[in-house]
Amino acid sequence: MSERWRGWENAEIYNRFVHEHRIYGWLNERLVERAKLEGAHRVLDLGCGTGATTQACLQRLGPQAEVVGIDASEEMIEVARAHTLDPRARFVVTDASSVSEAVDGTFDRAVSNAAFWQFPRMDQVLASLARLLEPGALFVFNVPAERLEGRPPHFHPFQLALARAIEALSGEPFARTSTLIDLELLRERIESQGFLIERMERLTYEGFQGEFMDLMSIPAMIHPLTADLNEEETQQVLEQARAATESEERVKVVWSYFTLRRRD
Fold first, then answer.
1. What are the Cα distances from residue 154, in Å, to 28, 145, 151, 157?
2. pTM above 0.85, yes or no
3. What is the pLDDT of residues 188-198, one digit of tens each?
């Protein structure tokens, strides 16, 4: 994951958001359900952040199982270690694309919550993961549906207000900078690395605008949109967008869940 997730401010604000809002709990519950963790022995959590997904896995695993959480951010890992006291969990600082060089042994499950689409080289992540997963092992990850190429774009009121505020301050048309995922190319990469796509499904999260306002208070989340603004200007556009949006307004966000199986 990119360097923008480094730093204590990112880790602390992100960890607070995860525990104060329900979206990550909702995402994790559906992730671990599809990973069928009952009976699993070793689980790899890719892009574990501050440990929320690891903890969700631990709730479904037996006493002899193990979860290894990996993240490229040392600060995220330190927060995860401080908040996860279960001896069945351990955490390793490493990039997802080189995870096979940083952890030992094999795994019968792997999960990645709200992270896979942020890895710069998904092909390398899949190749590294293929070296660690046992034949028949499951890998489950999720992606915001709006990140998939070919899906009709959908912008929430806060996103629109933020784009307008950035345009007004910069004097330039707002342009989305994040790269969309080519679904057909992703399929090819998945299959070329020895995985089968067992299931793809779209699940809808229903929440409030206020959650997405607070999400953008995480420096790593707002940075791609305001890379050309200084810190004061970034706070200015965030405040303007908040003032123009009703925090209690309900919103729906569609997530695509992928369940892969390692070929024998």
1. 23, 10, 9, 10
2. yes
3. 999 999 999 99
Q: Quick one: residue 47, left, alpha or beta (phi over 0 = left, psi -120 to 50 = alpha)?
A: left
Q: What is the pLDDT of residue 2?
A: 61
For residue range 119-161, what is the model confidence (pLDDT) as tens digits? 988 999 999 999 999 999 999 999 999 888 776 666 788 989 9
Flag residues of the chain having pLDDT under 70.
Answer: 1-2, 151-154, 176-178
d(Cα 10, Cα 75) in Å, to the nearest integer?
8
Closest by CA to 138, choosing from 105, 111, 161, 109, is: 109
Burial classification of residue 117, based on how many CB atoms lie within 10 Å of its CB (0-12 exposed, 13-18 middle, 19 or more buried): buried
Angle between helices 8-20 and 74-83 (to 10 degrees): 40
Helices 231-243 and 157-170, packing angle to 10 deg: 140
